[in-house]
Amino acid sequence: MSKESLVTLQQAFDERRSVYALGNELPVAPQAIINMAERVLLHTPSAFNSQSSRLVVLFGDEHQKLWDIAEEKLRAAVGDFSGSQQKLDGFRAAAGTVLFYEDRNVTKSLQEQFALYAERFPIWAEQTSAMHQYAMWTELRTLDIGANLQHYNPLVDEDAAAAFAIPDSWELIAQMPFGNIKAPAGEKTYQPVSERMKVLGL
After folding, report:
1. What share of the chain is helix, strand, coil (3-state, %, to 5)?
2. What is the C-alpha to C-alpha distance for residues 160 and 9, in angstroms, rounded to an integer?
3. Is the pTM here over 0.90, yes or no?
4. Is residue 87 within 8 Å of residue 119, measured between CB atoms?
5. What does each C-alpha distance from 126 to 19, 107, 113, 130, 167 come to in angstroms?
6. CB neighbours (10 Å) of residue 16?
7. 147 beta partners
């Protein structure tokens, strides 16, 4: 991909959407996704600079394994699986999945160090994960790669941990399938900004 074809960060911010029609033909080498995940981990802010977020990037058979686990667990949990099959097949068709975790040991350590804020640290950990999710999602868009965000946790937690050698202290927060965009997202509607924001002092 040439530099001229890259989407700017501002464009990515405006155009990032939930894309469900994904393919497994990435416009970049897998290493570019790995480099991106490393950059997201290094430069996304976290409360008290906790750096509590953990990422697992799955490609190929490992990516397929995750959605096989999700299907097995979902079939056992719901009566009518027909509505879920198409969704899961769509996730399988993608090139890979990013798993977003938070390390509970980091959160526990901060609770012990800063007792005054102890009850807030789990909330801040969730916010930290959300920032990593958004950063990764937007970065993927700069490479013209689509993604969507899923939450099959805690249904898949135990089996995914076993399959991917996840430490006990890591808590699964979200899953992000990604791939080339086979069809764009649908139109998005927006509530008036005037009803959602105030500007004071000018």
Report:
1. 50, 15, 30
2. 32
3. yes
4. no
5. 23, 10, 19, 6, 18
6. 19
7. 18, 178
